[in-house]
Design a protein that fits this description.
single chain, alpha/beta, 5-stranded parallel beta sheet, 48% helix, globular
């Protein structure tokens, strides 16, 4: 399985954020920190970019801003599309970045039935996943506040029955 190939243990809750690193605004750090604090089995997977400077800067920033959980952030190199799709399908939950959402990444995840937690911003670049959910008739995964975002992400990852129900709903929509 692709999770194990990425170093993610079987009983771990995988929070996937496959966005380009420039989308990870510092406002996102405390959200990630709280998600991981509330889920001791949680691991966040991020992808390196071609320029290692971005990855190194972000790793250092998170070690400074959320030092108590930074060790549970796993970094992997970009992977071939079939592997990426398999990993996305096996993720417990995908985390949308608040200021700049996924576009193609969100479409792929939703097509696979992977729940995405989103918190829409004021501009179109931060509302892409919201638009998808509005078209699909899904409202449960749209957070209004950072605390709401954390709660939704943890609930999805930690409650398999609800996650499986969401997956079926997303695929059907």
């Amino acid at each position: 399985r692709i999770r194990e190939a990425c170093g993610i243990r079987e009983k771990t809750h995988l929070y996937l954020c496959p966005q380009t690193l420039f989308k990870l605004h510092p406002d996102f750090d405390p959200i990630v920190g709280e998600i991981l604090r509330r889920d001791p089995l949680g691991v966040l997977l991020l992808f390196h970019v071609e320029s290692t400077d971005w990855s190194e800067l972000l790793q250092k920033r998170m070690q400074r801003t959320i030092p108590d959980v930074a060790s549970r952030i796993v970094w992997r190199r970009r992977m071939p599309m079939p592997d990426f799709l398999a990993l996305t399908a096996q993720a417990d939950v995908m985390l949308d970045t608040p200021h700049f959402n996924g576009g193609t990444t969100s479409m792929l995840a939703l097509a696979l039935g992977t729940p995405i937690v989103t918190m829409p911003g004021p501009y179109m670049r931060g509302r892409t996943t919201l638009f998808c959910y509005q078209q699909m008739g899904v409202a449960d995964l749209v957070a209004k506040t950072p605390a709401d975002y954390v709660r939704i992400a943890n609930d999805i990852a930690m409650h398999r029955e609800w996650r499986d129900s969401l997956r079926r709903q997303l695929v059907a929509a």
